[in-house]
Amino acid sequence: MRPFHTLIFDYGGTLDTDARHWSHVLRDGYAAAGLTLADDVWRDAYVHGERTLARQPIIGPDDDFLTLLRKKADIETQRLAQLGIAFADDSARQAMADSVARWCDAYVRRQMDVTRRVLDFAAAHYRLVLVSNFYGNVGAVLRGYGLDHYFPLIIESAVVGVRKPDPAIYRLGVEAAGCPAADCLVVGDSFGKDIVPATAVGCHSVWLRGEGWGKEETDDSLPDVILDHLADLPAWLEA
Q: Residue 133 to residues 11, 89, 158, 169, 235: CA-CA distances in angstroms?
């Protein structure tokens, strides 16, 4: 067993989608609902949704992930309508948003079967900390998927007032762990938001290199290991 004291996990893209960026998962949700979107149109709608949620207090602290997804897809479909995507009426637009949200929630629930097995293994051998850019409701999201008992220690950007890629958020994770950074292993899917800042504060890291967002300059030598799937983590830890 590799001699770490604490595993620090990212949430979005790491524990819920097996290293697929949420832009890709949501776009698949629209396709499943019968709406195929051009790259430029989808990118505009996705970025608009993310920025709107970041600027405005739309997500409540008790919102589970399905509720969050409905709000996100509602904003996205409104933007799509502004960009010329035709819906029969506003009820049809809202129905599309609800269908996308339900599809994405089902996608996450399927992934959670793997995630729980990984976290069961990790929790048996290490202290676990969660460090996430989120909207102030990550606790409700964890409860909704039955993950809350794994993470008594949570560093959430909306709560602590600092966001990735600022290394300070990982420094807070190390402080919560109560051990030196060199004894912490960060597991994340984003090279720029997880691996770079984690390394900057002295942590070891596992990069889940999946389907990312855009073209990002990376350095394969920076993480301790690059894995294709979250399910590969226990075997690497045992090696």
A: 8, 34, 7, 9, 27
Place of tokens 């949570």: 154
Per-residue pLDDT at 30: 98
pLDDT in tens, 38-51: 999 999 999 999 99
DSSP the chain: ----SEEEE--TTTTSSSSB-HHHHHHHHHHHTT----HHHHHHHHHHHHHHHHHS--S-TT--HHHHHHHHHHHHHHHHHHTT---SSHHHHHHHHHHHHHHHHHHHHHHHHHHHHHHHHHHHHSEEEEEE---S-HHHHHHHTT-GGG-SEEEEHHHHT--TTSHHHHHHHHHHHTS-GGGEEEEES-IIIIIHHHHHTT-EEEEE--B-SS-----TTSSSEEES-GGGHHHHHH-
CB atoms within 10 A of CB 171: 20
Whether residue 124 contacts residue 1, with contact meaning beta carbons closer than 8 Å, is answered with no
Residue 166 has a pLDDT of: 98
Q: What pLDDT, on the 0 to 100 scale, is given for residue 215?
A: 78
Mean pLDDT to the nearest integer, 192-217: 93
State the chain's maximal CA–CA distance in angstroms: 58
- Residue 130, pLDDT > 90, answer yes
> Which pLDDT does position 216 carry in this prediction?
83
Residues 22 and 129: their CA atoms lie apart, in Å, by 22
% pLDDT > 90, the chain? 97
Cβ atoms 97, 71 nearer than 8 A: no
